[in-house]
Structures are given as structure tokens and as C-alpha cells.
């Protein structure tokens, strides 16, 4: 059975953009799309609604789903769409839905902004806890933004896709991250840019455990050795790998400027500190313009 792409809706411009992105992604992957709206204050269908303060929110919730389905049917008629209204708090509802999804798409409001709940604190809480990849999409994000400009430097949805950029930290497991990134690049017939920011060890003399001072060539060799089996598995994907000495945040920020999709990792933590997003992903969610995919890994 095909696992759907799931998108959470709250009526904001960000969540509509996420639904459009999710529909395009579903078409690329040949998957169904499931749209959902969750709100714990929603009366159940069996309960009579007589008070205006209950009837108005219920009508709004139904309108959010109805508008989204009509919008998707009109703009993405090739994609099978199902819809669901859930009487539950958004965070646990989205996390439960994500368990059976290929990926989860949500709106992203970045800094400031007046987006809805699913583009703000709820989205951040879901990203920090979901094991399924979560893609965050900004309001105004359109199909043309995923493609390179045409010969006249004009936006076009018929030109090749912009690169998929993935940032890797070779001190952690990269397999889930690289699997998602290579698949995304394959579906788009897009080049894959792999970015690794490395720094000297925080020891006297900058040496590693063997007393060796790492060099640029060492970083490039390690990165290439990690990518080699993935290149063999995905020979159709053109890979550009960059090992850059310095801090990861500026390196990722620069690489993402011309990306159609940015893929980042989130380390799963099992201790008392709980889950966290990580400073690179936190920066990207708030500053990067293209859709950002956050992939959990051990």
C-alpha cells in the first residue's frame, strides 16, 4: 500500500503553499495526498451544535478543508486527494499522521510573519519530534521557484529543477539524510549538492585522537568515501560535493541560495533533554527561502 504525503492545514497562506508543494511532490513520486486539519476545540459530528461560539469555529474548520480540496482538485487534478478533520490537538494529531506517511508538509512563516499555528510553534514542535521527514514551505512558494530561470532569465516551470542541497555532519549517521536527498534529486532529475562544513578538533594543536591535524584533503576524502556507495546506487544523479572549512551555518546558508530544496538532519535524542531541532536546522527554518526538509536520524 502506498504511503501518502500528508499536509497539515490551518487556513494560513503558508499552509496553502505547503499543500501546493505537497501536491507537486505527490505527482513526482506517484503518491496520494492526504490533507488534514486538527483542532481539539472542534465538536464531534454526533454532537448538536447550538451555541454560536461553537458553530462558528466548526464552520471555519470545515471551510479550511473544503477550500483546500477544491483548490487542489482545480490546480492538481492528476493527484488523488483525501481529506480529514481531526478532533485533537494539532501536534499529537500531526505526529500520529506522520507515522504512516512518506513525508509531512507544513507551512513555514520564518521570522516574524503572521502565519497560522501550523506555520509557527506547532510546526517547530512537530519538526523536533517527528521521525518522518518534515518539509516546511513558505507562503508564496510556487512551482517556478523550484526551477532555474529560462534563457531570458525569467521564471519558468518548464526549465530543469534547481539543485537539491543536503548538509551532512560526518560525525553522525548520514544514511537517512542521504537516502531522502538522493531520492528527491532523482525524482526531479536535479543535481545534488552535498555540503560538509568541517573544523579542526577542539584540542591543543587541533589534533584528532591519533595526534593527526586534519586537512582539507582529509575532509574531502572522508566525504567522498561516504558518498561513493550512494553514487553507485543512484548513477543517474549528478553529485557535487563540497567540504568547506568553517562553521556550518554560513556554509549551508550560502549553498541554499540557489536551491530548490534544502535537506537537513535532526539528531534523535533519547535522554532527559528530549528532542531538539539543532542550530543549523533552526537557522534554515527561519531564514532560508526554499522548502526545507528536516530528516530525523540516530
TrEMBL record:
Which intervals of the chain form a coiled coil?
none
Every copy of the UspA domain together lies at: 1-138, 161-295
Region forming the signal peptide: none
One Pfam family this sequence matches: Usp
Name the domain of life this protein comes from: Bacteria
Concerning its family, UniProt says: Belongs to the universal stress protein A family.
Question: Would you tell me the protein name for this molecule?
Answer: Universal stress protein
Species source reads Streptomyces spectabilis
Amino acid at each position: 500500500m502506498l504511503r501518502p504525503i500528508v499536509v497539515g492545514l490551518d487556513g494560513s497562506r503558508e499552509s496553502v503553499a505547503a499543500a501546493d508543494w505537497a501536491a507537486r511532490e505527490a505527482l513526482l513520486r506517484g503518491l496520494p495526498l492526504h490533507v488534514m486539519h486538527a483542532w481539539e476545540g472542534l465538536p464531534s459530528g454526533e454532537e448538536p451544535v447550538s451555541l454560536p461560539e461553537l458553530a462558528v469555529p466548526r464552520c471555519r474548520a470545515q471551510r479550511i478543508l473544503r477550500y483546500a480540496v477544491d483548490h487542489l482538485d482545480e490546480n492538481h487534478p492528476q493527484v488523488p486527494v483525501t481529506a480529514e478533520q481531526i478532533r485533537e490537538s494539532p501536534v499529537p494529531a500531526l505526529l500520529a499522521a506522520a507515522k504512516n506517511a512518506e513525508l509531512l508538509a507544513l507551512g513555514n512563516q520564518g521570522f516574524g510573519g503572521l502565519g497560522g499555528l501550523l506555520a509557527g510553534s506547532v510546526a517547530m514542535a512537530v519538526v523536533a519530534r517527528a521521525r518522518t521527514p518534515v518539509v516546511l514551505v513558505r507562503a508564496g512558494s510556487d512551482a517556478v521557484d523550484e526551477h532555474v530561470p529560462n534563457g531570458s532569465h525569467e521564471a519558468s516551470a518548464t526549465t530543469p529543477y534547481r539543485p537539491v542541497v543536503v548538509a551532512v555532519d560526518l560525525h553522525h549517521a548520514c544514511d537517512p539524510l542521504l537516502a531522502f536527498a538522493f531520492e528527491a534529486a532523482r525524482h526531479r532529475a536535479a543535481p545534488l549538492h552535498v555540503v560538509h562544513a568541517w573544523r579542526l578538533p577542539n584540542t591543543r594543536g587541533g589534533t584528532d585522537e591519533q595526534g593527526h591535524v586534519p586537512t582539507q584533503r582529509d575532509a574531502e576524502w572522508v566525504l567522498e568515501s561516504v558518498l561513493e556507495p550512494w553514487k553507485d546506487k543512484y548513477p543517474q544523479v549528478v553529485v557535487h560535493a563540497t567540504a568547506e572549512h568553517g562553521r556550518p551555518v554560513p556554509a549551508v546558508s550560502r549553498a541554499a541560495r540557489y536551491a530548490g530544496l534544502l535537506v537537513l538532519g535532526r539528531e534523535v535524542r533519547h535522554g532527559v533533554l528530549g528532542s531538539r531541532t539543532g542550530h543549523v536546522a533552526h537557522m534554515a527554518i527561519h531564514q532560508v527561502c526554499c522548502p526545507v526538509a528536516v530528516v530525523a536520524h540516530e
